[in-house]
Amino acid sequence: MGKRKRLVADNRKEENKTTYFAKLNNCPTSPRKMRQVADLVRGKDAYMALNILKFNTREASIRLEKLLKSAIANYEQKSQQRAEEGVLFVKEIKVDSALMAKRLRTAPQGRGYRIRKRSNHVTLILDTKNI
Questions:
Q1: Do residues 86 and 129 lie in contact, with contact meaning Cβ atoms separated by under 8 Å?
Q2: At how many degrees (to 10) do helices 31-41 and 59-79 cross?
Q3: 3-state helix vs strand vs coil in the chain, percent to 5
Q4: Is 109 left (phi over 0), alpha (psi -120 to 50) or beta?
């Protein structure tokens, strides 16, 4: 690894020590459905977002709830503090598309329809409120 590349990597590692995040890769839900749930909690208090996700009926909310709990646990691990109500909030939540499995469904008259089974990557970043 070159010197400049190593410096950039070291800076990124130092920055990640103070960033509280969790990632979910290759989640088998379409990105559009996941974004609709992610928009509900973006910018909200962490425990308020947990309540929103817990009582939402969509399947994607179950996966996002688990991801948010993981991010809160990461905060507690890195900062050596308990996560208190009103301190943490969802700073950023990104949903990107991932691999797409392509399948064929039989159709009338010898044709085949293409089915695209989509998946996504979710990155959730927490931050603390300055009181």
A1: yes
A2: 50
A3: 45, 35, 20
A4: left
The answer to whether residues 74 and 46 touch, using CB atoms and an 8 Å cutoff, is no
For 14-47, the pLDDT digits (tens) are 988 889 999 999 999 999 999 999 999 999 999 9
3-class secondary structure, 55: coil
Phi (first) and psi of residue 80, to 5 degrees: 60, 30
Tens-digit pLDDT profile for residues 99-112: 999 999 999 999 99
Reference 122, options 73, 67, 71; nearest CA is 67
What is the architecture of the domain spanning 21-105+112-128? Alpha-Beta Complex (3.90)
The radius of gyration of the chain's CA atoms, rounded to the nearest angstrom, is 19
